[in-house]
Amino acid sequence: MNPSAKRITIGRKPGNTIVLNTHDVSGTHASLTLVTPVTNTWEIQDLGSANGTFVDGMRVYRKEITPANQIKLGQTLLSWELILDPRPLPPVVPVMQTAKVPEPEEPSAEQEEIREIAWNLKKVSDDFREKRNRIAEIQAQESINSRIQGLGFPMGAVIGSLAQALPPDYKIFGYAGGVISLGFAVSALISSKKLSKEKKKYTGLDDWYKINYVCPHCHTFIQQPFELLEKTKNCRACKKPLIP
């Protein structure tokens, strides 16, 4: 008997003194404590196992035993040779390995060319969309300005005429109302002229788009929006890649 083994544990887990790798033995199944070395008397204690601890066929939770007794953990017979000379498994020391991170591959000349094509097409698409949105904003503002002018000029004239019929002390308010109405109309007129001048910059936008949003291989106009082109990736006409 190993004199240093005052208490041993038995179970399926590697940390136990005696490891029994069977399905009916719990992770930490039972413990054995040396009570009297002279008579080789031990105390066995069940540690909450699932399948029980048995001495001479009787299930026990704590009992003194000697080598004359038969011990079973679940259905597994425990040899007294293991108890008297326990040999714990050596601890497993994990070996730390540094994973080698693969270096990124340099893109080929063909891949670089496709990336540049995609970047140019996206820029043309974004510019075209931004300008179309600006044209829509200008048209909406022009419509508002037209309504203001249509109401402001006549209302200013009417209010000015009515102001002449007011008592002298109130004429100033009538004239002020007419001036305000005319002011809104004049402001809308000036705004419309500026917007009209800005809108001229976008004349021929559709033609510009059809000239620049083309496949650089076959020079065919790409009818797909860029968002859809990102999914199809290839030119419909020549089938060459446009998106990486």
From TrEMBL:
This protein's record includes keyword Transmembrane: yes
Keywords, in A-Z order: Membrane, Transmembrane, Transmembrane helix
Family annotation (PROSITE patterns): FHA_DOMAIN
SMART domains recorded: FHA
Pfam families for this protein: FHA
Residue ranges occupied by any FHA domain in the UniProt entry: 8-60
Source domain of life: Bacteria
Residues passing through the membrane, by range: 172-191
InterPro entries in alphabetical order: FHA_dom (IPR000253), SMAD_FHA_dom_sf (IPR008984)
Protein's name in the database: FHA domain-containing protein
Originating species: Dyadobacter psychrophilus
